[in-house]
Amino acid sequence: MINRVNQIQSAKIASNIPTMINSSLPVIIKVLEQTRFNRYNIKFGTKTISTTSYTDLEVGSEYYANIGSQSGGVISINSLTKRSIIEPVLDGGANLIEMVANSQNLSWLISHIKNKMANPVSKDEFSIYADMIMALNENILHIPFYYDNRSALLQIQLNKNPKIYLLFSIFAPLIISIKDGKFNLISSQYPSLGKALASELKCEFEIKAVAPLWQKATIKATI
Q: N or C, fewer C-beta in 10 Å, the chain?
C-alpha cells in the first residue's frame, strides 16, 4: 500500500486550496461567555453579539460557523464545528509533502521517518514521526505542517481510490475523494466551501460532517 503514490500526485493541492476559497470560508467565532442556560456572547471578527444556541457551547472555545441574515436584521449562525488545535506541527512538513507529491513510490518514507526519529531535534518532532509510523500502519499518511505560518494537517488514505483530509487553521476541515486519478467528490459541512472548491476542481460535492482519517488512540489506565 505504501508504494501507491501515483494516484495522489494531487496532494499538491494542499498548497493551492487557500487561494481558491476567499469569501466562501465559514467564519470563526469565539464563545466569550454564557449569559443564560442557552444564551451566549460570541465574537467574530471585531463584532461581539448575544445569541441563542440550542447546542451546548464551550466557553473560551472557537468554532467554525456559517453566518447569515434573516428578515428583521436577525443574524443567523449555524453549522457550528469546534475549531481543532493542530499541535505539534512539523517544521519541515510542507517540504515532506512536496517530496511525497513528487515521488513515484513511497518506498523511502519509512526509512526517512526512522532516521528522523533516531535524531530528533525535539520531543515534539519525535512524537510527530511516531504518529506518522502508527498512521502508516493503517495506510494513512499523516503530516501536520505549516502553511503561511499557520498550522495545518494533511492526511491521505493510501488505497486504489485515495481520500485526502485537509484542515487549515483558517478554515474548516474537508475531504477530497479521488477516483481513477481524478477529483471525484468534495465532502464538507459547509455548502459555500464545498461548492466553491468543487467548482474549482470540477467535481461533485456533498454536505456532511467530516472527521480525520486517522486519530491517535487515547490510552486510559485503570488503577
A: C
For the entire predicted model, the pTM comes to 0.84
Q: Which amino acid is it at 193?
A: L
Helix (H, G, I), strand (E, B) or coil at 47: strand
User: Does residue 187 surpass a pLDDT of 80?
Assistant: yes
Within the chain, what is the greatest distance between any pair of CA atoms?
62
Alpha carbon distance 41, 117 (integer Å) = 45
Alpha helices by DSSP H, listed for the chain, are 17-21, 93-101, 109-118, 123-136, 191-201
Instruction: Single out the residue of 145, 141, 123 nearest to residue 132, CA to CA.
Output: 141
For residues 48 and 29, give the distance between their C-alpha atoms in angstroms, rounded to a whole number: 10
Cis peptide before 191 (omega within 30 of 0): no
Could you tell me the residue ranges of all domains in the chain? 9-23+85-207, 26-82
In the beta sheet, which residues pair with residue 208?
none
63-89 pLDDT per residue, tens: 998 877 666 666 677 788 888 889 999
CB-CB contact of 182 with 168 (8 Å): no
